[in-house]
């Protein structure tokens, strides 16, 4: 439940019918019926019917006298005929059916307008998208108010479990505002402006005195610089330039976004917007849960951190890298340091004589679409359904060549019409890492397709974390020796242990590096929303948390005049990172349980799900449930457990951890980091970071 209950005493008496009317409520839900067959207790003990009674459940009443059959009046000017004496269950089912009908009319249009905007980032398309989003918010708000009225009117024993759960799902609709007003309209506009800056920003430079100015977009240009360059100056130029073009310009809008989103959240019954975000996970004490899980993983992360720090020291030297300090974030292979996967060439444990998987893919003339076709073949080998042909016709693979600005965040799109699914990706790189990402993106699409037969309120995962965990389940499989052979690589079995360890390193650079980042980002975000982090400390607190949890620092001195969080997509798009954090923990629990269910008896990292129909059946069964069951129930289906557990993740990475410990000992390196010298100065009187920020 994501809304706070209010107890309604409903008196169905015509003289008092306006008890549920609201001046600004436009969704009328009433029932006019023949009273000759109705007892005073047929729906509620408080029913006192008139000669022709009208059951008012929100909004303005309507009344039809003298009819033998009644009319069930819903929002949007619609009505349904009702014969006889409907039960509460039947009344609610009529509302749910009408909600589905109207949602099927509204949602595809919204998705089409969003698609148009994100694949052609013009101001005109942005305005159209904002207007469409407000229209959907109005529809959801009306539906939510009416569903809440039903929910509090009828006791649970009068409505079947599935009907009540569907009603609850609408009543709690993602914490949407109860009413659309100037605040919610401005909120959508502010958020859209921040995203627009992010998607269209360019960083410019001149190479040489007479050279023309060169302007680089984030994708693919700046991402390529951050991923491939090992030149400290060039990396710092790209890192700082991106933050100057996106972070600082977004500062004022972000501050306004915080004010508006808190207002909307409080109107909907939450303490603040961070409270609303945490409720989506249906996990009591979410912050403490994340902290406890991260503590269990800290030794493994610290070993990886020390190993990477040494490898970067060997490249950049003591002028750039302090072997006892945080790592400058611009050196970690990406713009935001949430994934270190581009450092694999630096971190690779072993060189082998076998074919390089990226080189093999390129020699076989793979393109970006073929990577996704290969990913789909993995899923169909497990018994998943093939995606419709329209998916391949309508998806965007690679950067458009007609000069359009597009959103380059890899995204899975569900048009909410049960047939239209798409993806967008700007990447044109053919690498083994891109193949892994293709498995992840298609995993989301497969999940969407699996629950598309459900009623509208159930066409989403039971938890955002569950969505990420199941979608990412196969992404690490592409690095295993058995799957590389499946692709066609000729591998010497004598090198399997080395190839496997290289694969574990690839996975750790992406999955393991993400965990403290995700925790730090959401700790900062929730502190901003609850007011413990004030605007004049936005950047200081950001780097305090990044240093404390991740052991990284900015490569150049930053001040509170900067706004580095505003250069991160998940901040400006208001997407919580807790789903990625929890999803990674769940993912390895799922992998262990599914492999055991399929009869695998060896180490978890040796298990390959390719062609595994037993595992595929378990996963598809879980996905098809959508939101019809709680995330803990679905989690139990896949694991026979109810609790999150880091043990499978630690077991999976055990061979890598042993390697890291040996290498760190051999190099004489200790784990941990001292406080950064490049973060904004500590405000006098502010507590220093906890001991976790200076781990030894």
TrEMBL record:
UniProt keyword Cell membrane present: no
Chain intervals for the UniProt region annotation (Disordered): 664-696
Taxonomic lineage from the root: Eukaryota, Metazoa, Echinodermata, Eleutherozoa, Echinozoa
A cellular component term, taken from the record's GO annotations: plasma membrane
Protein name: Angiotensin-converting enzyme
Positions bound to chloride: 281
Binding residue positions for Zn(2+) 1: 444, 468
Membership in a protein family: Belongs to the peptidase M2 family.
Residue sites binding Zn(2+) 2 per the record: 444, 468
Residues the record marks as carrying a glycan: 85, 120, 643
UniProt GO MF annotations: carboxypeptidase activity; metal ion binding; metallopeptidase activity; peptidyl-dipeptidase activity
Organism of origin: Strongylocentrotus purpuratus (Purple sea urchin)
Cofactor annotation comment: Binds 1 zinc ion per subunit.
Residue pairs linked by disulfide bridges in the UniProt entry: 204-215, 408-426, 595-607
InterPro entries recorded: Peptidase_M2
Keywords from the named record: Carboxypeptidase, Disulfide bond, Glycoprotein, Hydrolase, Metal-binding, Metalloprotease, Protease, Signal, Zinc
Single Gene Ontology BP annotation: proteolysis
Enzyme Commission designation: 3.4.-.-
Keyword Nucleotide-binding (UniProt): no
Cofactor: Zn(2+)
SUPFAM superfamilies to which the protein is assigned, alphabetical: Metalloproteases ('zincins'), catalytic domain (SSF55486)
Stored Pfam families: Peptidase_M2
Domain of life: Eukaryota
